[in-house]
Amino acid sequence: MPLAPRPTPLAIRRVAHWPDLAQKPDLSFVPPLQRRRLSQLQAIAFHLAHALTADLPPSLTEHLPIIFASRTGEDTLSRRIVADFQATGEVSPARFSTSVYNAAPGLYSIFAHNTAPYTAIAAGADTPACSLLEALMASGPRLWILADEPGTPDACAIGALLDDTPAPDDALHALVLPSAPTPTEPITAADLCAFFLGQSQCLRAHAFTLCRTR
Length: 214
Known about the structure:
- By secondary structure, this protein is α+β, with helices and mostly antiparallel strands.
- It has helices at 32-37, 40-53, 58-61, 75-88, 93-97, 103-111, 127-137, 189-196; strands at 8-17, 66-69, 118-121, 142-147, 157-163, 172-177, 202-204, 209-212.
- It has an eight-stranded mixed sheet with strand order 3-2-4-5-1-6-8-7, with helices on both faces.
- Helix 2 (40-53) crosses helix 6 (103-111).
- The protein starts with 7 loop residues before the first strand and ends with a strand.
- The model has no long low-confidence stretch (mean pLDDT 86).
């Protein structure tokens, strides 16, 4: 009889959350010229990443893989560009250059001098689960961020600094277990927020189950 898979330990080193998606967070750590060019989604992603890594040494932050997920990406900015083009026949090169889906992690990587690879994920209603699965498959310290603009389906903004155990005593611990034996509904951004903010002790998806141990 095959042995059951051994549970995989995970350390949740830090968690950051931005609840008011309609408001731009404090970005005083970003140079003014760059700050003015950031969209709402990019500003929130910058805030979460900075909150999770601000006091870490450059030896880590400059080599920290990023998993960024957003169901709709730069939807508002893209629609604005299309409207401007329809009205004037022209497109702002500066605005267009930051309207792509992976602009947020790309711009933050440049800002943080981070040479590690980043992954941008959009999977419709399965975006939360797919992005977290991608983060769970990685090893070593990694930054996971899920963010969407206000007014979009399942909008939220949350991030975590994840690592493999052993972890320091002040880290939160979780076990990665096989998925539930029966199919479950897709996990939502609200489910993820509840789990990472300590309001839920278990998170089940089609491919994995997370159980907090602290």
